[in-house]
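#struct-help
A.M.: can someone run this one for me? Single chain, 95 residues.
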Amino acid sequence: MNRRIRPSKAPSKLVPAILLVGIAILGFATLMTRLEATREGYRLSALNQEIAHLEDQNRSLRLKVAELSSHQRLRARAAGYHLGPPAPGQVVLVP
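D.P.: on it. Structure tokens below:
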């Protein structure tokens, strides 16, 4: 009494094909998302390096400004140009 029941129709090949295409699209989308995240990570790293470089440059420029505008240096340079403190009456304060 082992009777097999035979299907009247052949199984559809459309459903597995649609699932395969869906899985492929999902895999491709995941791959593209990870690729974009990696690219953004590299770009962020490069920007952080540029920020660090610019901060170092800014610090050295501020130091140079402080050195060039120091009172000792300006007094020493003023003597070379025959400059001195103002004479009495040269400074006028406007109310």
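A.M.: thanks! The mean pLDDT is 91.
D.P.: also worth noting: Helices lie at 14-68, 71-80.
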